Amino acid sequence: MNIAVLLKQVPDTTAKIIISGGKVDENSVSKWSMSPYDEYALESGLQMKEKNGGALIAITCGPDRSKKMLTDAAAVGADTLVHISDEGVSDSTHVQQLLAAAIMKYEADVVLCGKQAADTNAGSTGPGVAEILEATCVTLVSEVNYTDGKYITMRPSNTGSEKVSTQGTSVFAFDKGTVELRRPNVRGIMMAKKKNIESITSSDLDVNLNNSNINLDSQTPPPEKAAGQKFEGAEHVPIVVSKLRNEANVI
Amino acid sequence: MAYEALDFYDVDSLLSEEERMVRDMVRDWVDEEVIPNIENACREGLFPDEWRVALGEMGVLGAPLKGYGCPGLSYAAYGVICRELERGDSGLRSFASVQGSLAMYPIWDFGSEEQKNHYLPKMASGEWIGCFGLTEPDYGSNPGDMITKAEDKGDHYLINGAKMWITNGTIAEVAVVWAKLDGVIRGFIIEKNDPGFSAPEMKGKHSLKASVTSELVFQDCKIPKDRMLPGVKGLRGPFSCLNNARFGISWGALGSAQACFDSAKEYAMSRIQFNHPIASYQLVQNKLAWMLREITKGQLLAYHLAQKKDAGTWIPEHISLAKMNNVDIALEIARVARDIHGANGILDEYPIMRHMANLESVKTYEGTHDIHNLIIGRHITGIQAFTREA
Questions:
Q1: What is the pLDDT of residues B73-86, one digit of tens each?
Q2: What is the pTM of this model?
Q3: How far apart are CA B350 and CA A10, in angstroms?
Q4: Do B217 and B98 lie in a common domain?
Q5: Which residue segment(s) compose the domain that B46 sits in?
Q6: B29–A186 C-beta distance less than 8 A
Q7: A133 is in which domain, residue-wise?
Q8: Which pLDDT does position B389 carry in this prediction?
Q9: Under 8 Å between Cβ of B46 and B205
Q10: What is the C-alpha to C-alpha distance for residues B98 and B111, in angstroms, rounded to an integer?
Q11: Domains in chain A, number
């Protein structure tokens, strides 16, 4: 079984984001990390591989810096590392085309990814790739097991949770699950260092990146948090209660 | 929350990618598993067993040793591991130092093939804890006059004597103990259940509270003949172990210093006095600037020493300088950090007082601060000043 896991390198959730000239200044990002939902997809992919055998192909589309994340994936057990250059990419549909082409090139049977990336939060990769592959897609899954030719997944429903099974090529977009993420170890890190990263471009994949209909015009930081308010003495209790109820909406 | 370390000169960019990956692995583990639990471990005075398991699983024990199931990393990686562990607690780093540099290293360097195959894989995996017995109640800086002795009884050795201040002693399966055989210092491997051997824990420490410290007592302790380390005689044996451990400490102390700096900076930025954060006052900025200055110098010292260690161009005096300097500045940084924290600095809500108390031990063990000065003094002048005898 070939298991493809789609990964994206994003600014670490603790990194400070600076907007400069209406765009996020990528050079100011102090730390880049694997998008947290993708970590769950990777862990589930590793468990699937351990249970059913096969190979795990870690695929990313991004700038050169994202190769480091592939090495991190190798340190926990990814077998094949594929880096697709993001040159010429201008929107999510381009990324989806490239990822789908790589998934076909590496003959993956099943595709795992995060439900959304922690930077753009678009949530379009899983469904978009499935659309191109004409594959089944299940989103917001917390676990996937492969038994008797079926993928059995758990996802939330409006009454609790639901069990969904699929057959054939399937794409699963992961939410944060209950699985515990594994840590790398020294042996894994030393093996990862020796692992080759296969770098490919859109032309290697025969993908023609058409003109995009979408343009990201500008980005703005979230509004600054208002200063805290301080109340002292019992006479302020009614005011505090009313603020907690009407402004903070917590009681 | 990913930890962002003070690295003013970007010294870590000089590390290899592999070394940085090891750093991040240990750093994340310390953030997630050690820092939330360390104060409790100190209050209870115990070394959490799950930390032993995790260190073994990460594969960092005996970091620079190659073969026999050992990690085979560089000395720079070993240094980084020590630094990240000690940012959590000096007791945790002590555990790793003793296991790797003081217990595994002598077996790896001076042991027989059988000894290496028997002990090292289980020690690298953390299954067996090791300890190191050199210091005695009456012989600390002067280990050459040790009393503990071994006698050759034909088909076995008989060990008599006592060792003191032994990290991991009570919890160890394996003790590497230095004793005199016919007046010559030799290394012996003692196992937990050897007859005549006991390792009572020393209680009442105000320092390294999350680390186990013990006495080792030998009363006609009988061990098989194949337990002596064949490859070394004299003080060179224990001293070569200490060189490696001291190297690790020179990095480790920077971890403590960084933890104190981080806490002092954060506290100074948020503590308001006279309507402004105390970080806006010149005296506090002066203290923070001094901390950053000393940490940065210490980082460069440690990094360059690691390069020399990996290249094999080091001398013991290089290690003495780094151990002495970096522990010294770390302790002073802890004290100044306590000052910046005001009364809050004495609470275990902040890591300051714990690091400070730990560093008092670190300043003394593995060659006291003064002894390292004498080592360097001898190097400068050619005159030894340890004893009054010529």
A1: 999 999 999 999 99
A2: 0.91
A3: 32
A4: no
A5: 11-124
A6: no
A7: 2-200
A8: 78
A9: no
A10: 17
A11: 1
